[in-house]
Amino acid sequence: MRSRVTMVLAITAILLGGVLLVPTAYARLSDGGSSGGGGGGAASTVAAPSPTPPPPPTLAAGPVSVSFNGDFFSWALLDRQTGKISGSANMTATSSTESMIKAWIVSDYLRQLKDKEPTAALKEAARLAIIDSNDTAANKVHAAAGGSYKKSTSSTPDAVIQRAITICGLTDTKRGNIEPYTGFWSFTRMSPRDAVRLGDCIADGKAAGPKWTKWVLDQMSKVRGTTSAKDQKSSSGGGRWGIIDGLPKSITAQGPVGIKNGWTPLNYDGNWHVNCLAVNGKWSLAVMLRYPQKSGLDYGAKVCASVASQLVTPQPGAALKVPQQPVGKL
What does the pLDDT read at residue 41? Predict the structure, then answer.
């Protein structure tokens, strides 16, 4: 009898000891084995890394479709980070620059001054030539820069335009050859490919030099006036339209965009000659047009805006694809 009791007590003690050991072992496993030797811990879930935010919107090469009714439509886009130029199939074809070239005329004059200050009158003329596209002011700056209107059978542009070709690496630009305007700066023949090179040349400092580049770009960002009749004068006019209207706030909020448009209705061919140039820290874009005068200036302004809006990347409202990171296990 006593031996049975002893056996029962022994079995009970073993069972009780096992129950007490199980929670202790579980506790050691649950804390990764920190209380014991180098045993492995239980699997734990690790949160996925935060996705890399997408780059801010910009202009990038892409297809452009415009329902255009006119003699000439061409555009080009220069990526200022890579130097690559993309555009329409005819981006090397030329048209008259009109007032678009005024940004170069001002830059060329100021670069020659180096660290010197221009006279107050010439500095004001340079400002008005850009922000109001003032022809009289541009003529004064052009003359001060060493330009001339001498009639000649030569196909070589005057000294001011020739320096643009040399300094900015232009390959398609040539002297205008329409009588009686031969040699006049606004009849300089330029392609959109060269126009974006010109924009880049102004923005990177080669055109105006270290002292004056910021000033020129500042004036280009302050161009004022609309296409309305009240803003269009005989020798000056409102020029804040075109590419700038096709850019979303997500791009313009990144920093100033410098613009210089050129526009003239010409009787010799019955066309509006409209050019749009815009540049910022990432890109330079040019659109050049010739179309019937009856379509009006607004028509050309809207074409320029349409090209810019189609090149915005990513397109406003487009869903951003963020790669999904799997949940890791340790």
Answer: 54
Could you identify the residue written with the tokens 């890399």?
Answer: 52
Q: What is the DSSP-derived secondary structure letter of residue 79?
A: E
The three-class DSSP label of residue 47 is coil
Return the pLDDT at 43.
61
When mean pLDDT is compared across 98-102, 219-223, 325-329, the lowest value belongs to: 325-329
Dist CA 192 CA 287 (whole Å): 6
Tokens of 54: 């997408």
Confidence of residue 153 (pLDDT cuts 50, 70, 90): low
Distance CA 106, CA 138 (A): 8
CA dist 303 and 67 (Å) reads 9
Q: Token digits for 105?
A: 């005329």
SS3 assignment for 240-303:
CCHHHHHCCHHHHCCCCCEECCEEEEECCCCEEEEEEEEECCCEEEEEEEEEEHHHCHHHHHHH
Bridge partners of 271? 266, 292
Q: Does residue 314 have a cis peptide bond before it, meaning omega lies within 30 degrees of 0? A: yes
**Mean pLDDT of the 42-60 span:** 82
The helices-and-strands tally (H runs, E runs) of the chain is 9, 12
Which one, of 299, 262, 267, lies nearest residue 278 by Cα? 262
Q: Which of 160, 321, 130 is nearest to 237 (CA)?
A: 130
Q: For position 318, what pLDDT does the model report?
A: 58
Q: For residues 176 and 54, which has the higher predicted lDDT (pLDDT)? A: 176
The pair phi, psi for residue 293, each rounded to 5°, is -60, -30
Residue 122 near residue 141 (C-beta atoms within 8 A): yes
User: How far is it, in rounded angstroms, from Cα 47 to Cα 216?
Assistant: 51
Nearest one of 151, 156, 124 to 140, comparing CA atoms: 124
Residue 231 DSSP symbol = G
What pTM was computed for the model?
0.82
Measured CA to CA, the distance from residue 74 to residue 57 in angstroms comes to: 24
Q: What whole-number distance in Å separates Cα of residue 263 and Cα of residue 109?
A: 23
